[in-house]
Amino acid sequence: MQKLSSGKVRDIYTVDDKSLMIVVSDRVSAFDVIMNDPIPDKGKILTQMSEFWFDFTSDIVPNHVISTDPSEFPPEFQTPEFRGRSMLVKKLKMLPIECIARGYITGQGWDSYQRTGIAWLTTPPSGMQESQRLAAPLFTPSSKATDGEHDEYISFEQMRVLIGLDLALRVRDLTLEIYSKCAEYAQTRGIIIADTKLEFGLDDNGTLVLGDEIATPDSSRFWAADRYEIGRGQDSFDKQPLRDWLESSGFKGKSPDHLPDEIITSTRTRYLEAFTRLTGRTLKA
Question: Among 71, 108, 104, which Cα is nearest to 230's?
Answer without folding.
Answer: 104
